[in-house]
Amino acid sequence: MACPRQTRRASVHRVRTARAFILYIAVVFLGAALIAPWIHSAGQAIAEAFPASANTFNQPFHRYVNRSLLVLAIIGIWPLSKFLNVQGRAHLGFPSRASWHRELATGFLAGFVSLAAAAGMAMAAGARILHPDLTLERFLSAAASAIATAAIVALVEELLFRGVIFGQLLRATSCLTALIFSSAVYAIVHFFQRPPSPSEITPWTGIWTLGQMLGLFTPRFPQPVRGRVGSCRAVSSHGGGVCLDRTPCRVDLLAEAMDRRHRGRPPSLCLGMGLIASGGWMDHVAAASRLCRLGAAPGISIMIVLPPVVRSFREAVLGWVYPEVCFLCGIGDANREHGYVCQDCQAGIRRILPPFCNRCGLPFAGESSVGFECSNCDGIELAFHHARSALHASGVGLDLVHHYKYHGALWFDPLLKRLMSESESLDAFRSGFHAIVPVPLHPTKQAEREYNQAERLGRLLASVLDLPLVTEWIGRRTPTSTQTRLTRRQRSANVRRAFELRAAIPGSVRKVILVDDVLTTGATTDACARVLKQGGVEEVWVWTLARGV
After folding, report:
1. pLDDT single digits (tens) 447-502
2. Domain ranges, residue 191
3. Which terminus of the chain has a lower count of CB atoms within 10 Å, N or C?
4. pTM
């Protein structure tokens, strides 16, 4: 039986440890929010001084916040260990291991093989496809990125959360408490959603961004494929992003429905589900059991090999427990062929029908048997000849565009392709054209969004019209702020000189289709059309998924 002095000493040590970790977390988060704007400014200056490094430093701001969090977390380990009187590895229960390099190599190879096998089986079963523009250069780049990511995750994050932090907690509390705390920190950090891009960077933007990331906290799960093996999100996140197509899983839809029902309450109501479902939790269980039983550092091989096995098993179970439901309402039945939108929600989509403006395609509420131009186009010189759209940007149609553009709802592809192919407005585009050109995104915006929605829509339209999709001719020279609340004159000024010709257009190309997601004032498409005409194109017709009214 422990004496009162020992009990009191243990209690004081636990309180001291708790205070140290609370201070550590506060300093890491607040410090990262404060230094991120300065690091971002330095990165932009380096990118301007050395254009070859632009791809490295022209990253969305939230990534600078994430990197600042990681750097401060690593730097803070030393003062935290000193404050808690940690003298070395032995104090954390980590004796020297002569075979660490063998475990590292074995774990890395085993993890790579298991993930590659999962990706191969998913593609063989038809659950996922390779990127349509995959080349050897892109594959090697993805492989290099995967190797770098695996090294960082295995050597930094695993050792940080499962090593030093977990070991220090074990000195002051029980194995279960240490497991829950470290798992919670690990899961919360990895469940941050991507915040909206700030319009400008100020010294306080980091605090705003961190608040957005915390406010958008929601469980994010790998995507199960019912009746099939593998998970594309698990493969893409750990395998360099070779598989790029994504579909929603039943748990994603359930979490979205929960968030709708609990609107106005903290999204962290889903925290319990997030902790249980995260691969990090399962990894901790295996690592902690080995650490507590053997008194040694967990083998890296177990950490790397276990996640895909656990994910595959969990996804197979969840695929049968949770039914396929509509992404928009969370109630009606839907499947992949429907784009995960039920029939009731599809019935609420307003399609654009004649009559409409002969120039910009603005629908007219009434009847007309002759062509006409609306007041917006009358007397205005536009670089494009005609513009047409499939849907009204209102109601369900606006929800489709918003989720597709900002929330990565790429599973809408089958539905959007059908809506475009069935549109009466598309009849004038079915012959006489030579190529389809999507409105380009700035590399920073595309890195943040991870895809160009206009390019994906262009690819769908290209499959309908049997035309080539060309992305090399024009590019975006400078990033532009969002145009949602700008007037027509402000939009024109915002995109003026934003685009440039990147490659020579063949002389045989005379008539092209310019594709974007939404047409409101036509400022963006007009600016792109001018660049295409400067490159030798005679006629530019515009096609958009939706038309703002």
Report:
1. 777 789 999 999 999 999 999 999 999 998 877 655 555 565 666 666 777 889 99
2. 4-321
3. N
4. 0.51
